[in-house]
Specification:
The chain has 144 residues and is an all-alpha fold. The termini are far apart.
């Protein structure tokens, strides 16, 4: 982080590199080594994998998640851990679709009867504790 700041300021010629390195507490040789360094093999592999993951994500049906993208990579001969695929997808801003869990709560019996509307859809009350209503169809009983 410090080296990047030095590189930004050095490009503008505001301060000499030796002065900035001394003020930030880093060595000048370390700064020049950082400046001349090439990206690591893992960084270049991650960049290539990110483009491949983005292609699989775009061509996949319905926003595939980590598992489906990982399976697509395995089909192409690139076996990766799910954690690495998750990290690369997160860095690229790709999110899989998470369908909302749905549970059926009302199961009709053999001869269902429609419950009468005793309130006639008027949910106002003239005084407290005079009109109560509720829905307990989600409660499982022995009768169904």
């Amino acid at each position: 982080m410090k080296f990047a700041a030095i590189a930004d300021w050095a490009a503008s010629d505001e301060f000499p590199v030796a002065f900035m390195c001394r003020q930030l507490g880093v060595s000048r040789s370390g700064y020049y080594a950082w400046l001349a360094a090439v990206p690591s093999q893992r960084t270049t592999d991650d960049a290539a994998l990110t483009t491949l993951i983005a292609t699989l994500f775009r061509d996949g049906r319905g926003n595939p998640g980590v598992r489906r993208v990982r399976a697509g990579l395995a089909a192409l001969g690139r076996r990766l851990s799910h954690k690495r695929v998750w990290r690369l997808m997160k860095a690229a801003g790709l999110r899989g679709r998470h369908p909302k869990a749905w549970k059926r709560t009302t199961i009709a019996g053999e001869h269902p009867l429609a419950a009468g509307d005793l309130l006639a859809r008027d949910f106002t009350a003239e005084a407290p504790n005079t009109t109560w209503c509720g829905d307990i169809t989600y409660v499982k009983t022995w009768d169904g």
